[in-house]
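user: can you give me the structure for this one chain? tokens are fine.
assistant: on it. calling the predictor now.
[tool input]
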Amino acid sequence: MDDGFPDDSTFDAIFSIFPILFVIVLVGGIAVTLMNWKKASDAGVNPLTMETEAMTTLIKSKALASETSIEERLAELDALHAKGTISAAELSAARAEVLKNL
């Protein structure tokens, strides 16, 4: 009698393959994790804190900072001089430094 459901042999085949696939995926995941751990250790990085170290280094670097134009930097220096924050001599030295890095 066909009731539309698969017979027991189909379920047995599925449930006998599932543990094998699970073990293969688990072993593969462990292998990849160990290879990444070794690569990070060989590079002199703590694998447990590697992502945090990379993010803090990136945040502190100038890679994410927007580049200010020379005109903006000179305007900032002029504004500091106008407020009295820097003297005329400091303004002159700072402007020379900005213009030297062209």
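assistant: here you go. The chain has two domains: 7-45, 63-102. The chain has a mean pLDDT of 87.
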